[in-house]
Amino acid sequence: MYKEFASLYDNLSEKKNYKDEVSFCRAYFTKPPKTILDVGCGTGSHLNEFSNLHGVSSVGVDPCEEMISLARKKGIPNCTLHTGKVYDIAEDNFDLAVSFFNVINHIEDYGTLKKTFSSIYSKLTDNAYFLFDCWNGAAFFMDPPQVKTTVTPHGTYRYEPTVDYLNSNIMMDVSLNDEVGKVITSKLSHTLWTPFSLKSLLLDVGFQSVDIYKHFTLERAVGTEHKLSFVCKK
Prior knowledge:
N-terminal domain of TfIIb, Rossmann fold, alpha/beta, seven-stranded mixed sheet, 7 helices
């Protein structure tokens, strides 16, 4: 499903403010981190923004070969890219790990989620941070997403969600009717993890603190927000 989505990814996220999201990470450091791990890096846009920090080296990993191919074409300085999962790579001793754009929601089972969190924890230096954003399963149960249409210079995107409450899942049908009339479609499956289950698991694998904020702000979440940011300290 992600092979088809890769061709849409950068156009779909062209209004995303990567600079502000990197600035959110900077708020937790008195000086910029020097080694950064991006889990589920997609086409490398966050890594490209992180490369503007002085002296940074980074590693990005994503299971989608097409995403990594697009990331490589960006020529991100001092950046190593891998196709695979975070527990497949050898690099460690990172000052910061990130996993943005709802990557955590693309992990569909508890065992893989725990293995992912454990691997990230093991690859961080002491007192380092792991930051990620995700959909708030609790809020989506109360207020499910609706069909959405977005018009961009590249065409019209349509999102049609189907919620499976018993399995805490949303299947998102994404279609693009581009400027020449070609229709590209993709299906994306998202698991609706609750904040409580995520925090409990993060503490269980060893993180000493887990704070939950409104999406990319320093304002504490109250639990009804559809999108959340997690700040986890080793």
